[in-house]
Amino acid sequence: MSRRRRNPQQRFARAVVYGIILLTVLGMILTMVGMASSAFAQPTAPQPQETAEPTPVVVLGTRDLTWGGLREIAGSSSPAAGDARALLDAASSGEPVNVVVRSANPATCPADGWLTLGAGSRARALPPTASSAPGSPACLETPDAASALAATRDSGYEAHPGSLATALAEAGAPVAAVGEPAALALATEDAASMRGAEGGGSPASGSLQEILTSGPSGLALVDTATGATTAEQRVTALARAREAVLATAPRARIIIVSVADAESPGPQIGILPAGTTSPRGEDDGLLVGASTHQAGLIQLTDLAPTILAALTGSPRGASGTARMTGSALALPVSLPPAADADAADRAATGTGTGAIDRLADDALRARASHMATIPSALLIIIASGALALTAALALRRPRPPRTMASLRAAGLTTSCLPLAALLSGALPWWRAGAGEPSWATVAVALATMLLIGAVLAGVIALAARAAHHPVALVAGATALAWLLDAALGAPLAFNGALGMDAVVAGRFYGMSNTGFAIAAAALIVVIAALRPLAPHGRAWTVGLVALVGGGALVLDGAPWLGADLGGALTLAPVLVVLAVALAAPRLGRRGWLRAGLGAGAGMLVVGAILAALDLTRPADRRTHLGRFAAGLADGSAWSTLGRKAGALIAPFVSSGLALAALAAGLIAIASAAWWGARERRAWREGRSAYQWLVAAAPTPLWIRPALVGLGALVVVETLLNDSGLSMAVISAAAAAPLILRARAGGRSETGTKKGPDLPV
Fold this sequence. Notes:
Strand order of the largest sheet: 3-4-1-5-6-2-9
Shape: elongated
Strand content: 5-15%
Number of domains: 2
Number of helices: 27
Distance between the termini: 29 Å
Radius of gyration: 29 Å
Structural class: mainly alpha
Largest sheet: 7 strands, mixed
Oligomer: single chain
């Protein structure tokens, strides 16, 4: 009899697994096909009009110069104030941007920046110990080419130093460098010394004037910060170099860029020639970065393919073999004849001041976000842990209705904090204090989160009087807000209180790992909480999971929306587990084993299909999944795996606060698991101190399946992501208040059952 009763459950579990896998595969295939068609149709970069002979490209590099710092010098009584104002005028007449200079090191030293610029990929010329102490003498050193190449080979990044110089040499375009740091950009993998392209100038000798007048159009790299020890000196040297270029080659295409953030990591200044365009257009007068998808923000790695396209006509070089990870912008063929007049007009009218103000504010926000990330995450973790501990102690004996109401209010407010962290991006908390971000800025960020959380809790409490399901409202709003924000380009999450900032530069748009951890946990809770509200029947269960979960998969995983393929691969098997838990709660171990195997197989199938489709695209348009699949074929994937493994533990090695947050989270999760197992045994033996709670407030039927789905989420995201441990803690912290609020429930919760057979 028991075998006959179990077989239908097993058959149904298999049907659910196959159905969810089929829906997931079909959805992801359609997503990837749409991505591929749009990518193939999209040009790499706008093509400038060929109305004149291309003029030289001159890169004037400095270090540790931000828009805020430049404005401060311009408004001071320093002898460099006039030079700073001249650079601001140049920015108003050109295309000003913030530049993310993140290299293979956390803080980018000048040598790292120049080597990265020449490679078109993140590289490092110095070991990580040099960047661990920004501004130190070691960070300001310029190593020889052999040492620089050895350092970048050990970085774990697949950078190819000197890719720009090599591609220009193949095209016959001359290349020259002034200053030893700039000459590092010409260091190639097959040489232990600096080299210039054939027919070009000397890589490390000669004056700028000699280089500009010595031959045909080409590239000149100039380090203007050599010998300058203060910001004022660097500004003056940069302004003088610009004047020299304009005097010698007035139509040269000048790129001004700060290549290093050795003193304070964060976005640096960049000024591109007037008439520069982006394949993603403009936003409020600012270029939208081709690789960042953000207005006024590009990466240092974008400059190499941009220069290559300007001098050869292709961002991959004349032979199409240049190996770079950056995305090209389109420089004008030459400086427009009216550029000088336009500069004077814009300087006189103050046009462009607004753009500079926005860029300075964006850079400030990025640094503030970087500083507030861990404290904001700690606030959510600590609040969730404190709520759980308080509830565990308070509910060991019957409590009056007032105490239960207080617990429900605390649970509702705490559960709103992840959503509040996202919405805080709509308020300018990063402007608190004067100048650089400080702990006062962090305090304002945390206060903003708490204020928004309290307001949200009040609004949801009022709405719950009609909807009678506050947990579903909070979870649904949280999941939907994070998913929609990702789909819209992350206007709130990027440089937000929970990170995804331009300092770390791990992601610039779409769904971050932290955002996915929050959204996925909330999604599981809302699907489970909505199940009692739907008609009975297993078909309705599968349909609910497929509809809501499938929509989340598209918003999260579609490359033109959330662009989080790793998150989609994580969510697919978790949805299978959740569907089985909801539809077959009494499934035996063999059934769960089969469901788990089916979920794993589905994930592998989806991953293989996505990788295969991605491999059909050009190499410079592949996602990280396609690049990894290609690496498996050529053997380079192992270094990627090593770098990912290093990234898993790096934050906790370099930051005591991050390590403390992780330890607190893991201890909380382990303690909760141990306590839950002990209380479960006590419940079965009839000696649990929480026996009274079931009679007073019946357990919602959906809690057990939700816990099963959350457990699967924690395991899968830990295994599949390079920040999996942090994601597991955040998911647990986001879900715990929702579960506790539901368990303390009352009449507003639905789908309950009295009796001791459903202990939490």
